Amino acid sequence: MRLANVHARSKMKARRPRIEEEDNTEFSETASQCWLTSEEWSEMEIEEAGTDDEWPSAFGVEIFDSRPQQCSEGNGGTSGQGGSVSEGIQERLKLAEKLTATLTTRDQLHVAELASNVEELEDCKAARSPELERRERLDADCTKLQCQLSVVEEHLITAKAKLLEMEATVQQLAGHTDAALCAKID
Description:
Distance between the termini: 131 Å
Largest sheet: none
Number of helices: 4
Structural class: mainly alpha
């Protein structure tokens, strides 16, 4: 509704310079063309607002026409259409109450859902912190064991080198012993 008013005003502002340029005899004719009748205004509102199909309702909320109903000018709306106007108002009030109740119910459901999500998040955080502590301890133990493994591997390499030296020494001694025994036998 507000957009339609702004649009109509901008159209009027665009027409004003053109009107002022014309001479006074044509001015009255041009000025009368700028006045909008209520029918033209409602047509402009409809064109600007579009159709109900273009405005999808959120959460199943129904969209209804917010323009007031016009009463007949002769009787002032007290008889004839007066009953239908009050019935229309009552229908709109019932619809507004129904929509308010629906939205209140949905709000309560959303609050309950949000509370359960907060609870679930807290439970996840509570379960996660012991798991993180265990993981940190396991990572520290892994690092410690890897250091110990590298030290053991270094000792193993050193022990293998000593073993090779000992085997070479044993072979030399075995060779000397064999040579000495052969010399005594001869």
